[in-house]
Amino acid sequence: MNKRRTVAALALAGIFVALYLTLTKLGLLGGGALVCAVGSCEVVNASRWATFLGLPVAVWGLGYYLVTFTLAVVSLQDRFGDSIQVSRGLVFLGATGFLFSAWLTYLELFVIHAICQWCVVSAVLATGIFVASLLDYRELQRLAVSD
Amino acid sequence: MAANSSGRRRSRRARSASSRPNSFYLILGAIALVGVGGLAYVALKPEPAVAPPAELPADLADLGPAQPYVKGNPDAPVKIHEFADFECPSCARFAVITEPDVRTRIVDAGRASLSYYDLPLPQHLHSYPASHAAACADEQNRFWEMHDKIYEAQDSWSTGRTNNPKNIFRDMARAIGLNLSQWEECYDSKKYQKRIDANHAEAIRQGINSTPSFIVNGRVLRGAISFDELNRAVTEAAAAAQSGDTAAPRSGDTAR
Lengths: 147, 256
Hints:
The structure holds two protein chains of two kinds.
Chain A: H1 2-25, E1 36-37, H2 40-46, E2 51-52, E3 55-56, H3 57-75, H4 84-112, H5 117-146
Antiparallel strand pairs in A: 2-3
Helix pairs in contact in A: 1-3, 1-5, 3-4, 4-5
Chain B: H1 2-17, H2 21-44, E1 69-71, E2 78-84, H3 89-107, E3 112-118, H4 127-138, H5 143-152, H6 154-157, H7 166-175, H8 180-188, H9 193-205, E4 210-211, E5 213-216, E6 219-222, H10 227-242
Parallel strand pairs in B: 2-3
Antiparallel strand pairs in B: 1-3, 2-5, 5-6
């Protein structure tokens, strides 16, 4: 259960990071004025890769963290405590976030040549969520085997 | 048997779950607090300073004085200096929505002159080409017509839309009646690179690092400000100029 709590805590932190990036992308943060500025996050957020399927990547991130946080909190209910399906769901979300973050980090390093520190924070959180969800899944499997 | 084992599992996990439920919610609360506090701080803090970009020479004086594009009476009591990037969406917003009013009600009315300085930001790959396109239109006294075309159609030529915006700029040059071969030769040779860099250098000297930014008789206004905000700044600057409290004149202005 502690792994699921970890997932929930990391996802909650991720919600705020993604919210910050979303508001920045939409021009609602950073002095409150509509500006274009110099800075690695601005470079990354203004690049052509900052939009995925018509939506800003930051918005996808916000959705990902919200869904993950919700599922993680729900999974803490006693009746889902042993649900391997819920664990699989968390692993699926964790893997999706991890792979997407890995792709974005690759783009930052080798294509855009600019690193946005908040994107890195998000990638670390997504990795943590993936690892914690995997550990949760393995724990449930081990318990099933030991029984 | 299955139900039994499941029951044992639940009890194991439930035991660990009930060990520190309050501390878990305390941690969630702390994360939420830090998150909300961080967002509030970012929303309220002033803009950070940014180092000059690498594409300019170490000694900015090598570029000579800035040569902005000036509209209106250069001897007007109030001078509006605009620092902008042709590929910046906020600059396009200002140019398309706000600037027509600024021209008729402030510049053409003789209340202030408007000087445009290039400030190409590194994330916009086609900013320099756009500045070249405009500078080459200025050679034929059509800078502002080109300026308007470039901003109005920003979506069609910006980074990610096309790899080479030249053809789109050439169509604009044709539409505003430029001598095409002269424009193209100028554009291809990057004839006004030094002028663009000198305008860019002026932005750095003035501590401007975001676009659009405006300096109205020494007062800095950042972002795609509204007509009312700019109008107020011009009115106040004119009143101050009349009472003799003017900012020092700037060296880089050249009337066109």
